[in-house]
Amino acid sequence: MIVKLIPLLAPFLILILIRLAKSYILSTLFTKKTTQKSKEMVSCDSCGTFVHEDLLISKFGKKYCSKECTNS
Ligand SMILES: [Zn+2]
């Protein structure tokens, strides 16, 4: 009885696997997009130069491009 049911259930199992794989791929692509979005160019509060978030210097709640700008 169970052996006879396996060929009938196989397409459904494959469909579920494909859907799981699709959602996994979409979720990984979505997380990649959000990480790219978080790394934006931000303008310096002192001189107005656009700086990459990784190189940004935060001081007193303001964003600066270099140490010289934090002093001015
Ligand atoms: Zn600056």
What would you say about this model in short?
Helices cover 58% and strands 17% of the residues.
Secondary-structure blueprint of this entry?
Blueprint: H1 2-38, E1 41-43, E2 50-52, E3 57-59, E4 62-64, H2 67-71
Antiparallel strand pairs: 1-2, 3-4
The structure holds zinc ion.
Descriptors:
72 residues; alpha+beta; two-stranded antiparallel sheet; 4 strands; rod-shaped; binds zinc ion
Whole-number total of structural domains: 2
How would a textbook summarize the main sheet? 2 strands, antiparallel
- Number of H- or I-type helical stretches: 2
Instruction: Tell me the fraction of residues in β-strands, as a range.
Output: 15-25%
Given as residue ranges, the uncertain stretches (5+ residues, pLDDT < 50) are: none
User: Can you list the ligands bound to this structure?
Assistant: zinc ion
Helix share of residues?
Answer: 55-70%
- Enumerate the strands of the largest sheet in spatial order, edge to edge or round the barrel: 1-2
